[in-house]
Amino acid sequence: MKPKCTVFSLLLLFVFSALFAFAGGGQEMVTKEAYPPEMEEWLKVSKLGPHEGSTQDWAEIERLAKQEGRVVVYSSSSRIANVAEAFEATYPEIKLEGYDLGSVQTLEKTIREQDAGVYNADIITTGGSGQVIYELLAKNRIVNFVPDTVAKEIPKEMKDPLLVRINEAIVFFYNKETYPDAPPIKNVWELTTQKWRGKIVLKNPLESESVFMGICTLAEHADEMAAAYRRFAGKKIELSPGVPDAGYEFIYRLLKNDMVLLSSGSKSAEASGKKGQADPPFSIGSFTYMRYNDTNGFANEVFRDLDPVAGVIYPTYTGIARQAPHPNAAKLLTAFLLGSPEINPDSVIDEPYTEGKSVELLQGLAPYYEMGSQSPRKDVPPPAGGEIWDQVAGKCWTASPEFMWYEAPKVQDFWVQESSQ
Amino acid sequence: MLLALIFLVVLTFLVIAPLVQIVYTSLIYQSNDLRVVRDARVGQFTLYHYARIFSGRLARSIFYKPFLNSLLVGFGVTVLAMVVGALLAWVLVRTDIHLKRFFNSVIVIPYMMPSWVIALAWLIFFKNDRIAGQQGMLQQLFGLGPPDWFSYGLLPIVICLGLHYYSYSFLLVSGALRTVDSELEEAGAVAGLSRSAILRKITLPIVLPAISSSFILTFTRSMGTFGTPALLGLPVRFFTIPTRIYASINSRNMGDAFVLALVLVVLASVAIYINSRIIGIRKSFVTMQGKGFHSRPTRLGALRVPITIIVLVFLLVAVFMPVVILAYSTFMLLPGDYSFSNLTLHFWVGASDFRRASGQEGILRNDGIGRGVWNSVRLGVLAAAINGIVGLLIGYSVVRSRGRPLSKTLEAVSFAPYVFPSIAMGAIYLGMFARPLGPIPALYGSFVLLVLIVVVKNLPFSSRSGISAMLQIDRSLEESARIHGLPWFKRFRKIIFPLATSGFVSGMILTFITAMRELSLLILLVTPATRVLTSVIFEYESQNQTQHANGVTLILLFIIVVANLIVRRFFGQRSLSGLRDS
Question: Which pTM value belongs to this model?
Fold first, then answer.
């Protein structure tokens, strides 16, 4: 036994392998306003960004797309598989290769690959406002492309700086079976009272970008939260030591009121929505969980009038990846994702949406066409039960990319610190 | 030794380089950090992450508490798993207990399931009102839920993981016990030693290496496990280092994640160091000498039936209940409704129906699942074969050059993957292989990368079993062949390999099983084309499509059990120098 010898040889190994590790170079991030030359070249050839021109020649795009024969999508959504099915049925010449990565991995994979000079993806579609805008778009990792076929039906903020593919929301749910007449609370601050101790359930925000966005957006609106507190308690809010404002104070008090964290969003929907519960909790989760009322027999209900907010709307963006190998197929798919231009407010779209006539109209929107989400297009009629979106959206705040980019890390640290028991 | 040197270089690249990368990443600013530290540059040297984790405002909640919790989980699980595993091993190998064959084939089933499956079963039973929704069975039956400390947190995590990880010590200890020649023990008896003295002075020292390596494996694995603490700890906000790592990776705080990962790495290294000290001091025992060998079971006498019943009940609770619950749940139209009218075959054979399971086709006609089966099996078989051979070769290199620094270093390096938390290793490999590296093309997205990472991750296993198999083969056997002029390759094939088959095969089965049920390691690397069964399960589970998730889990389990049976049948009947595998 010669421990010294071993230590020494391990040390050598470290030095040796350090060479390996650095050989490929650390990640270097260039924050340039201008496009790098090879990207400029690609933009020109692909007629994208500054070279898009005034009109889009869709016959030509389709012809070239069929030549390209493939389109690779990095998506935060598992339903990209259903999109692929519909897309390949419409364009059998083009294979859609969909990577269902979740929002974090979509970003991570895109960034890591591009930094390594690998340009695999054609389309990046994911939520995560701050990072998509500040890390992908601002750093030229994606390019905005809005199909002119439907552009006029999309409000400005949903196509500039980046096209929104679908809007979703994180909302408060309560159990309608237990509380059939009226929601049990009127003001969110009631959730911080002893009465509802341990009675609010949500997916761990540190594992869910969208839930986290919801929490952050509550923190962002500190003034409204303070005003709501005054309406609830009749007096000005007293902040706990070390808590900066009423937004954070709300999060702080929720946590101190024994909020329950789960590892799955659908399970939080079950917690609040399962029938036959005498004392069900509230949950915070995706608006689209309303579908479980049909499929799983839950009794979830959203608030139409919760003071000061019933939920937080967040967009899922879509952009064409830098130096995408199949730019025309990417354009074609972007248009496909938004649904056929033939859709109008009077279109009759029957269930099941992913079949027959319905899918011909909805195209890539079909898998996302459900109660609790909203197409950016004003001319798309709501799905069955979808009127509920408009009833609730007015009482919602929208996640802001700036806040999500610069302030969310602080909210996260605050959460980590205060959520530990 | 050339062989040892080659391995050292390759492993350095696959094992140590990622470690260096972890250290490096933890010491520089990432682009994500610039959101907070705005004047920093990416790649600039900094102790920012270390300060955050160890001394900042966050330290207590992000590090110290989770660290303490992880230690509690690690030790709790290890003690439970080792006691259960070693006892079962002794009872099944060295006594005349009834139903031995049957026990032997089902006892490692918990190991074949993803570790969080038992946690799921725990929740089905013992869930209380805290997380609401579907009531736990206990509460449904008695109207009263168990207290929080019983339903969630440390205790259930330790129990569930203990019931999963006992297989490590069971497999390793029973492997070692099989090689103990009863004559040694009989010699002790003749010399007048009492039964407990024989156990203490003869049996225990021989199986000590197996016990200590199962300690390492169980401890490091349970410290690094994510699924079960996430499921059972989260509702009472019981955080561990892995759940903190996962959360950090998820919010792209790579620096934080890697500092935390390094904590696990250091901890595991300390454990391995202690282990090597123990084995080093105790030296090794050569028990396989090519001479007469026999094993005589201890008679349990009056205790034979009661002990059989105890083992039976244990298996019923730890193995069959979770499986039966899983199976039953796949036939329930609405989860949690146990009435007969709620039974359906829809989730197995149904066509796509958007009102059920988000339109997923039944399990048996689902292409996605079929592809997952093919990928998983391919991955398992390839990894097992490569691991088996590599493990044996490493074992050979290490043992034959024992005492030299080269041997020690190779041994240490081949252990190193164990100290990587799986999830962190996946992240590192993703980074390393997303681009071409010298002669190696960009492996990301390819099936090869999955095989590679599984092989490397399982190296500690396979090299361990390779080493212990080699340790027990007396050098004289090989030397006599050398004297007869057999070249190295022939010596290896004709003498070493057959003698080591027991260790080789058990190492292969272990790798196969691990590969089949690995999730944390692969989750960052799989793509739709290379999707494996566990990632399919994970997807269904996170969408709360319980029936599909559980059904696919059953398929996974079925494949593993069948494969295990085939291997046993095939190799178990070959008798090697009196060494029997029953």
Answer: 0.82
